[in-house]
Every structure is written in structure tokens, then in C-alpha cells.
């Protein structure tokens, strides 16, 4: 006999990783009370079932860990179908953003990227890091490119160490963006010395994205993507 409040699972055949995540969250919600899961959580989980991951905030360690985990789970479930990463972000931590980028490179499936609203700084970097041919921007998206920034303080030796780390980050980012866009490292270094803004069309011409799209029908469905 089932005890009151006990959650049971009827075997209905194979379930996807995203389905199991949703079921686990629902079980946790039942144990913790109705306020433990927000509408936003529910929407993101339903999108995850469609292999859609959303970066909709500043890039920090918490969001980077969440997005990396989601990508790893989706790739483990299906290594052939694409993952779609939607980006509306002001940027954030370089190290957190690189964790997302390295995960995109690590997993076997393609990652399409779509910018909406704002893709600034690390948001711009992740947008351009999508699989070539599968990088998109909505028409009124604003894209901002600039060099990494960092506060420097402490003793003289600490300042030298931090300055060297900043220089390495700057050179690494310039080389990667050059590879993503087809621009030269020298041009990227010159262009991101100060804030440089791009419209969606300008981002297309610069090489950040491959397509400017205005309707959902212009985007391939993740489950239908396996090749460019």
C-alpha cells in the first residue's frame, strides 16, 4: 500500500535525461512544498526537454555550472542531435564563461547559438563560439565586444601577477574571437580595445553570427539538426 505523500513512478518505457530531471524536480517540489519551484523553473525545464538551454543573465559560476551540467546531460542522452543555446546576457566572469565554452567544445553534438536582446562581452564570445553555420541573431539584438576587464589591487608583486593574467586573458580571447569570426587577431585586438557595439546585421557582416532571423520557422528544430 502506498503511504500518504509517497511518490511512485509507473514504468512507461525509456525516458530522456530531461524527462528524468523534470520528474526529479517535481518529486522534490512535492516534498518541499509548492513554493520551491517557480514558473521560471518550470519553463526552463520544459525548454530543456526540447534541447534548448537559456543563458538569460550575467555569467557567473552558478549559471556556468548549471549550463555546463545541462549540456553534458543532453549530450549523454543524444550525442547526435543539436543543443540550442539562447543568449540574452550582459556578460560576466571570464573564467565562468570559459567553463561554458570548454563544455561546448567538449561535447560531441553541435551547439547552435541564438542572440536575443543583448549579447555583451562574454555573451558575445559565447554567441560567436557556436557551431559554424548555426549562429543566429534576432533582428534587434545588440552585440557588444570589448576586452576582458579586471580590478587590480594588493601588493606590488600581486599587481604584477594580476596584470600578467589579464594580458594572457586578453591575448587568448583575441585569438579565439579571431578564429570564430575570420577576422585577424590584430583587428580583434584593435577593435575590442574599447567598447564596440554591433547591430544584428553588423554582427553578421563581422562574423559573429551566420544568420539574422526574425521568425521561429527560420530556425531549425534541435531534434532535426545533426548537420549544417
From TrEMBL:
Family annotation (PROSITE patterns): CLP_PROTEASE_HIS
Cellular location(s): Cytoplasm
Keyword Hydrolase carried by entry: yes
Keywords: Cytoplasm, Hydrolase, Protease, Serine protease
Listed name of the protein: ATP-dependent Clp protease proteolytic subunit
Single GO molecular function: ATP-dependent peptidase activity
NCBIfam families given in the database record: PRK00277.1, PRK12553.1
Subunit structure, interactors included: Fourteen ClpP subunits assemble into 2 heptameric rings which stack back to back to give a disk-like structure with a central cavity, resembling the structure of eukaryotic proteasomes.
Catalytic activity entry: Hydrolysis of proteins to small peptides in the presence of ATP and magnesium. alpha-casein is the usual test substrate. In the absence of ATP, only oligopeptides shorter than five residues are hydrolyzed (such as succinyl-Leu-Tyr-|-NHMec, and Leu-Tyr-Leu-|-Tyr-Trp, in which cleavage of the -Tyr-|-Leu- and -Tyr-|-Trp bonds also occurs)
One Gene Ontology CC term in the entry: cytoplasm
Purpose of the protein: Cleaves peptides in various proteins in a process that requires ATP hydrolysis. Has a chymotrypsin-like activity. Plays a major role in the degradation of misfolded proteins.
CDD domains per UniProt: S14_ClpP_2
A Pfam family recorded for this sequence: CLP_protease
EC category: hydrolase
Enzyme Commission identifier(s): 3.4.21.92
Active site location: 121 (nucleophile), 146
Primary site of residence: cytoplasm
Gene Ontology BP, a term: protein quality control for misfolded or incompletely synthesized proteins
InterPro entries attached to this UniProt entry: ClpP, ClpP/crotonase-like_dom_sf, ClpP/TepA, ClpP_His_AS
Gene expressing this chain: clpP
Amino acid at each position: 500500500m502506498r503511504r500518504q505523500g509517497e511518490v511512485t513512478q509507473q514504468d512507461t518505457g525509456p525516458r530522456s535525461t530531461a524527462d528524468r530531471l523534470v520528474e526529479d524536480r517535481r518529486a522534490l517540489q512535492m516534498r518541499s512544498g509548492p513554493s520551491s519551484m517557480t514558473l521560471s523553473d518550470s519553463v526552463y525545464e520544459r525548454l530543456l526537454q526540447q534541447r534548448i538551454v537559456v543563458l538569460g543573465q550575467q555569467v557567473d559560476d552558478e549559471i556556468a555550472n548549471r549550463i555546463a551540467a545541462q549540456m553534458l546531460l543532453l549530450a549523454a542522452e543524444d550525442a547526435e542531435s543539436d543543443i540550442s543555446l539562447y543568449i540574452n546576457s550582459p556578460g560576466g566572469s571570464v573564467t565562468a564563461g570559459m567553463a561554458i565554452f570548454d563544455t561546448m567544445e567538449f561535447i560531441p553534438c553541435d551547439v547552435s547559438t541564438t542572440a536575443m536582446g543583448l549579447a555583451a562581452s562574454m555573451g558575445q564570445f559565447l554567441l560567436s563560439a557556436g557551431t559554424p553555420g548555426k549562429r543566429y541573431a534576432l533582428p534587434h539584438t545588440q552585440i557588444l565586444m570589448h576586452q576582458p576587464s579586471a580590478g587590480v589591487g594588493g601588493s606590488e608583486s600581486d599587481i604584477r601577477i594580476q596584470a600578467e593574467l589579464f594580458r594572457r586573458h586578453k591575448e587568448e580571447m583575441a585569438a579565439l574571437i579571431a578564429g570564430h569570426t575570420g577576422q585577424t587577431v590584430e583587428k580583434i585586438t584593435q577593435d575590442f580595445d574599447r567598447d564596440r557595439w554591433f547591430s544584428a546585421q553588423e554582427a553578421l557582416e563581422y562574423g559573429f553570427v551566420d544568420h539574422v532571423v526574425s521568425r521561429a520557422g527560420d530556425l531549425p528544430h534541435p531534434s532535426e539538426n545533426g548537420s549544417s
